[in-house]
Amino acid sequence: MGAGGAPSRRRQAARRPRALPTGSFPFLLLLLLLCIQLGGGQKKKENLLAEKVEQLMDWSSRRSIFRMNGDKFRKFIKTPPRNYSMIVMFTALQPQRQCSVCRQANEEYQILANSWRYSSAFCNKLFFSMVDYDEGTDVFQQLNMNSAPTFMHFPPKGRPKRADTFDLQRIGFAAEQLAKWIADRTDVHVRVFRPPNYSGTIALALLVSLVGGLLYLRRNNLEFIYNKTGWAMVSLCIVFAMTSGQMWNHIRGPPYAHKNPHNGQVSYIHGSSQAQFVAESHIILVLNAAITMGMVLLNEAATSKGDVGKRRIICLVGLGLVVFFFSFLLSIFRSKYHGYPY
């Protein structure tokens, strides 16, 4: 009886639940509270992110570029969570700022943003916004920004890197160049659609009509077509336009000049050898034309058979034109190529 009862008591003892150590209960309670808090925090972040994206999509449905002040910039760009890329143009569009470059850049930026908004690839991964200096001065101060316009990309995670600031001075602000930069930074490809521009067609039609009318009026006397001086002038105009960088301006779309928003100083000559302003092309064109005029006068003084005194005056004027304007041209070259003279 006693021997048979021992195994039964052992089996009952084995089936009894083993009590947990006294110190483990607070730990389990703390772990449970931590899991609940983390889950609630994650849910709160998801809700906040959903609210942000919903608000941005609502703004984008109204305007392709929405304006931001300091509060909106900090809420939607600086403060996480984010799962979208934001392209921001920092500018100064108020008339009292007298920033003509800002207006030109804004037009290209508008074309780019409209192309993205109305494309089939439009999604909530990329947004376009703008911060005007007079509406977000604190943002400019926070980013230590002292020039406008400036384009920046704010990635979904982390801080912007150096490549997230668009090199406007070297590349220009054409919509196509901005789209290429955005594709490089975000892997989102924006196909630029420009509104039809009929000004070139109208100008060509007017030119053809003018030439046709002139030929019709002079149909009995077309000797001017064989005028060497006239064709030489036309050729020189084409040469001056091409050597001054007009084709580069047409391709890259650089600003006409650059005005410092702090001191108001206007720069007409770009400081880099990799870029130029439109005004710089005009200056180079005038300098080349003046040097050419000087060379023509020198040639005229050497080959003509007129009065010696008159030829001497022509020679001095031509020499003065060449020396003065060629020196001016070299000074511009030296300011752009800092290693000159080599």
From TrEMBL:
Any Pfam family from its record, for instance, is OST3_OST6
> What membrane topology does the UniProt entry give?
Multi-pass membrane protein
Q: Using the record for this protein, list the coiled-coil segments as residue ranges, or answer none.
A: none
Q: From what superkingdom does this record's organism come?
A: Eukaryota
Where in the cell? Answer: Endoplasmic reticulum membrane
**Acetylation as UniProt keyword:** no
User: Which InterPro entries does its entry note?
Assistant: OligosaccharylTrfase_OST3/OST6, Thioredoxin-like_sf
Q: How does it assemble?
A: Accessory component of the STT3B-containing form of the oligosaccharyltransferase (OST) complex. OST exists in two different complex forms which contain common core subunits RPN1, RPN2, OST48, OST4, DAD1 and TMEM258, either STT3A or STT3B as catalytic subunits, and form-specific accessory subunits. OST can form stable complexes with the Sec61 complex or with both the Sec61 and TRAP complexes. The association of TUSC3 or MAGT1 with the STT3B-containing complex seems to be mutually exclusvice.
Q: What is this protein called?
A: Tumor suppressor candidate 3
Protein's gene: TUSC3
